[in-house]
Amino acid sequence: MGSAQSKAEEVAVRQNLKRNKRPLNILILGHTGAGKSTFINSMQMALGHKWCDMARSGSGYGQNITFLLTKYEMFLDENNETPVEGYAHKVCFWDCAGFTDHGDDVYVNFIGRVLEGCVPDGTNVLDASNQLRDDAERVLSQFSERDPSRKFHRIVLLLEADKPLPRNLMEAVRQAAEVRDRAIPLFLLITKLDKIGTNNQAYEERKQEALQALNLVGENQKFCETYLYCNAKCRRNHLQQFNPVAEIDKRLMAFCFNLTNSSYEQGTVYENP
């Protein structure tokens, strides 16, 4: 059982999901090994209280199993111990292959194509991004047709608490998100908090640098630092599924509440579902 606070935050998330009747596509970006797939699985666990290996994850820093842009429908009834009443199943997390730490205009352009719905589900994003330096015009020409159903409404950038900042990637994501006719809300999630000690000055400096670089200073509702399920402290039950961890659930549900909050719809252009 979770704490009273995590339960209250879960109730608030469920209310958001019940009210949300429009598609909400959320792009999960980050350096290779940042924990994007693990984040998706952990978010599902935090609300559903039932472990599901929805998204395959790597085995550590620098390990990358995700090669594709992959869409996951979140919080489906069959994945929750208690279904979300009135939920229209409109929230989708899109797991994107880990980008290398480049910040050239061509990478900004490619991320922009993803955000605008030009890159289909199942595209080998890793191959495409690796080919950009050699033949950007050809690669970008393959992704010129927009599909409104793939347009993104939020971005979550994952960084690792115990690793150097991917500064070029951070800048590329910020630029792509802030294009005037796009203006997509950008959220920051720092993972692997369990890998650093308390009063870690180097981490605090990296965190503040990241918040400043992404224009998120003072935007606490768009920032979360946490550890995720699958870390060394998690315990499995007799079915080899993870037992709930109240602290993880509390942090992720608070983050999810802001992520699914309709207050960010100002300026966001939705196509008809």
Automatic annotation (TrEMBL):
Q: Known InterPro entries for this protein?
A: P-loop_NTPase
Alphabetized, the UniProt keywords read: Coiled coil
The gene coding this protein: LOC109479586
Q: Which organism is it from?
A: Branchiostoma belcheri
Indicate what this protein is called per its UniProt record.
Uncharacterized protein LOC109479586
Please indicate which superkingdom the organism of origin belongs to. Answer: Eukaryota
Q: Which residues form a coiled coil?
A: 193-220
